[in-house]
Amino acid sequence: MVVWLIISVVLTVYLLVIMRANRLFIGLKFYQPVQYIYSPVSIVVPARNEEENIGRCLDGLLAQDYPAALMEIIVVDDQSDDRTADIVKSYQDDRIRLIGISADEKFGKKSAVAKGIFSAQHEIIVTTDADCSYGKTWLATLVTCKEERHAAMVAAPVAYRKEKSFLEVFQSLDFTTLQGITAVAVSNKLFNMCNGANLLYTRSAFEQVNGFKGIDQIASGDDMLLMEKMDQAFPGQVTYCYAHAAIVETNAATNWKAFFQQRIRWASKAKNYSSALIKATLSLVLMVNLIPVVFLICAFFHPNYLKYYFIFLLIKALGELPFMLHTCIFFGKQRLIRWFIPSQIAHTAYTVIAAFFGMVTTYEWKGRKVK
To answer: What is the pLDDT of residue 258?
Structure first.
């Protein structure tokens, strides 16, 4: 009886949280500059083994509707062993600079980002990933948002490219949900979430919080853990750019192994968050996904639990559906909604597995084993 009461309470609290998130998301106001502000900006692109993507990334950055004299693109080669550096060198454009991390330097994404920032010429820093693509007013929208709001840091939306397989659809639904929560959380000052593929902050703010010092021993977290430091140092100066023009597109993982490795990497930093609210939210999400997994395991011994499994999943999915629909509409992914309920079985299992392995094991990233 007590167990069923706990299950009911967990599900009810979760549904109330999702309903509130949906109301807050609906209430978000689109950001649209009346007039663009063009300030000098340095774009830092950490890259490791990105020969298939770096050309498209650079083409998108060079095509920005932004004064050429006010932007520089710094590609930091993180010890690639493919043609990434050669492709960057082939671009004959003064806006592009290539720097590298030598064998005797500390490697990894944080090191690459930090090295790019310290070699930057401008105060405004924008970080993105080497597999990203951009609309032509992306940079102007981000910079204008920062200047108009006098922000120390601006988080912005990220989406996966058009999905061609079930794995890509599954990832996109999951990632779109995370992006919706990010928009709600940051816009309403609830807790800090962001993605390093689309992030702006000032160099002086980065230096004032001592960069990645204190979190540099953690392999992941070049975005959210840095954002926590920024928010503590500059309260009220962390904002979210809720605009279609600000969306950056990136690649989904190409196979299930890469997908799990990515999600384990993301989950591994959860224990390092300082916000009690984000820890409580993550714990609630874990519990509401763990319950149906336990039901499914119990069904092998008592078939009646299979009924409870499907009932729980259906209630959970129907509660999430309005929020999922609104976030998909913002990102132009309404076509994926038909896969939302069918994907629930895989989603609950992956969430529990990624959370568990994120706490206890190593993961692989760009050919490196990382803890």
So the answer is: 85
Q: Are residues 190 and 294 in the same domain?
A: no
Identify whether 42 is part of a domain.
yes
Strands 363-365 vs 368-370: parallel, antiparallel or unpaired: antiparallel
What CATH number does residue 243 fall under? 3.90.550.10
Residue 76 phi/psi, 5-degree rounding, is -105, 110
User: What is the sign, positive or negative, of the torsion defined by CA atoms of 340, 220, 222, 139?
Assistant: negative
Structural domain span for residue 347: 2-25+273-370
Note whether 134 and 217 are same-domain residues.
yes
Q: What is the pLDDT of residues 28-61, one digit of tens each?
A: 999 999 999 999 999 999 999 999 999 999 999 9
Could you tell me the end-to-end alpha-carbon distance of the chain, in angstroms, rounded to an integer? 41
Cβ contacts of 111 within 8 Å, gap of 6 or more: 78, 101, 105
Stated pTM of the model: 0.91
* 238-265 confidence digits (pLDDT tens): 999 999 999 999 999 888 888 888 888 7
Report angle CA 32, 35, 39 to the nearest 5 degrees: 105
Q: Which two tokens stand for residue 316?
A: 């959970």
90: in domain: yes
Structurally, how many domains does the chain consist of?
2
How would you write the chain as a 3-class SS string?
CHHHHHHHHHHHHHHHHHHHHHHHHHCCCCCCCCCCCCCCEEEEEEECCCCCCHHHHHHHHHCCCCCHHHEEEEEEECCCCCCHHHHHHCCCCCCEEEEECCCCCCCCHHHHHHHHHHCCCCCEEEEECCCCEECCCHHHHHHHHHHHHCCCEEECCEEECCCCCHHHHHHHHHHHHHHHHHHHHHHCCCCCCCCCCEEEEEHHHHHHCCCCCCCCCCCCCCCHHHHHHHHHHCCCCEEECCCHHHCEEECCCCCHHHHHHHHHHHHCCHHHCCCHHHHHHHHHHHHHHHHHHHHHHHHCCCCHHHHHHHHHHHHHHHHHHHHHHHHHHHHCCHHHHHHCCCCHHHHHHHHHHHHHHHHHCCEEECCEEEC
